Amino acid sequence: MPDEVIEDDKLDMALCIEKFARHYYELYNEKDSKFLESECRILFLTYLKPILNGKGFYHVEAETRNRSRMDVIVDFGTEQFIVELKLWYGESAHEKALGQVCRYLDSKNKDIGYLLTFDFRKTENVGKPRMEWIEYNGKKILDVMVGL
């Protein structure tokens, strides 16, 4: 698996998150929803750890200079990736999450970030992830949503 997302000692975080989303759908179903709601971050970090395998590491809830906390920062080689994890609480909350990612990117002087949202509604995102690159406040964000 690491060979697929690491090339020339560079981590392809977008591909890593895409593969996580596919992996998620292979393993979890509606019966797992109570567990998943409280353990989303652990699922993602458990997936990520063997990929980093001593060549990189992650920080959980790293603090920015204005004292807000980012969910996950991944350091790999000379690159740093900001990944925000959220539960789906509606369009308004999702819009706020995108703004939050932009603020984190600004605090780290980055232009590219990642938003991974877990959606436990029974009507959306059934069986496959929704992934799209979006431009938001001058930043490029991979907006990924997984559900049950």
Q: Any idea what the radius of gyration is?
A: 15 Å
How far apart, in Å, are the first and last alpha carbons?
Answer: 23 Å
Q: Which percent band covers the strand fraction?
A: 35-45%
Broad shape? globular
Q: Segments where pLDDT lies below 50 for 5+ residues?
A: none
Q: Major beta sheet, specifics?
A: 6 strands, mixed
Order of helices and strands: HEEHHEEEHEEE
What structural class do helix, strand and pairing data support? alpha/beta
Please state how the strands of the largest beta sheet are arranged side by side.
3-4-5-6-8-7
**What is the number of domains?**
1
How many beta strands in the DSSP annotation? Answer: 8
Helix content bin: 25-40%
**Annotation field: number of helices:** 4
- Average of the residue pLDDT scores: 85
